[in-house]
Amino acid sequence: MTQAEREITGETTQVRGGPGAAAQSHAGEPITSEAIRDITEGEKNVTGEARPVKGGPTAAAQSELTKGRQ
Predict the structure, then answer these.
(1) How many structural domains compose the chain?
(2) What is the pLDDT of residue 19?
(3) Across the chain, how many H-helices and E-strands are there?
């Protein structure tokens, strides 16, 4: 997810209020729909887009959630 954020922002560090920061607020918790919602909101905050970016941080978190359910 961090790499996806870097690709979107071009920054090497997390963006304040971005998806990485949102994910860290859920550190130690299983990935849940609430965590994904927070990551999505952080992604929207960074990109200014209404929808998550294809292959972005939200997609990465959703992929991990899917893997965890298998």
Answers:
(1) 1
(2) 86
(3) 4, 0
